[in-house]
Specification:
With 70 residues, this protein is mainly α. 63% of the residues lie in helices and 0% in strands. It contains 4 helices and no strands. The relative contact order is 0.09.
Length: 70
């Protein structure tokens, strides 16, 4: 029997406009709500991330973070 998806955790988050638009687009394309899409991404994080690109993209994001906050 498949595991039932129960969204039990709710928390306020801050997202960039670009990140939120991408989340909404992904959720719509997948036929999910935004919370369900985030659950899918994090439950399957290890299998969907590109191990070689992730550290580089994270360094770029962190390098731009201060400028993006202004």
């Amino acid at each position: 029997m498949p595991k039932r998806l129960r969204l039990t955790r709710r928390f306020p988050i801050a997202m960039s406009e670009d990140g939120y638009r991408r989340l909404k687009r992904f959720a719509q394309e997948a036929g999910l709500e935004e919370g369900e899409a985030l659950s899918f991404i994090f439950e399957n994080f290890d299998s969907i991330m590109h191990e070689e690109r992730f550290p580089h993209r994270l360094r770029l994001f962190n390098g731009e973070l201060d400028a993006r906050k202004r």
